[in-house]
């Protein structure tokens, strides 16, 4: 209820109003990146029309309920549970999803971020449901809806796109029919449309050459993979204990070899992020959770006794963040979010944060002339997303630049 618009919301609104939807799409695809669906959603940011700032407060709730809703649908469809039992399982599943997030602020409360990273996960849940209905009924509507969502997801974010592409390849390999070939063909075509966008290449830059470059890539791949293995391994015993029945049912339907192949799909995005030298950050959350679920299934096949240590998982998830790395690599610090959420609720002046941000925006709007200096935000929450702008004694950052463009100012800074 205290969430507010961020600078990215303002710049997306500015870009759309200046260039139009088609012009903004072209500019983004050619000069920023190939996430054609995720970026298109951001073009509809309502900050210009939402003068009371209602949308940032209701949008995260809508997305969270959508996640729980689609999980409930899949529990009913795949495990034939009652609505009540499916809903209970969905809430528990959401709990695991939340504690494994690398960045709650950027995933749930940053509007432009949730459009890129959270909405695709929800849509992937619907695709899973459509696939099941298509298989059971054979009705064309489920096939067409599946194709549509494949197109959408390939342009949402590259991590989830690679996971989906890997699964479509497995699906076709297991059952070589016309529909699965179309799924794979459509997926491959739109994956290329996303990955080969000129904007992706205009933002890439490497200074290392030769063997140094490949050592760096291998090191990043190893570090990212180790982080994901460590963070998920500590929670797997509890997950197996809670979802034991469902994991057993899945085990009865597939072989161990197939389970390993499905798990191995997670290596595709990890190899890709290593290649482009991306270290652990918000974009890894899809592969982290996919790794977690599929790795849990492998444990059920071979090491199910690990569930006896569920109590260790319970202890670990309530521990504070393990702060080991310097600030530049702080995303590698393992955090299960529960302590931070509790601290936020009990200690942070969330209402004060909302008021300070709203007062800042009002001051910028009402100040005549091209320059304005505002107070720094003092009550900065850890769970809600916020990135402060540069002060009068610092060089301009993207935050200053975006607000200056939206409010038609030449100079916006904070006081020292």
TrEMBL record:
Keyword Transmembrane: yes
Transmembrane segments: 58-75, 87-104, 110-131, 143-168, 180-197, 218-240, 260-280, 287-303
Superkingdom of this protein's organism: Bacteria
Keyword Transmembrane: yes
Keywords: Membrane, Transmembrane, Transmembrane helix
UniProt-recorded name of the protein: Glycosyltransferase RgtA/B/C/D-like domain-containing protein
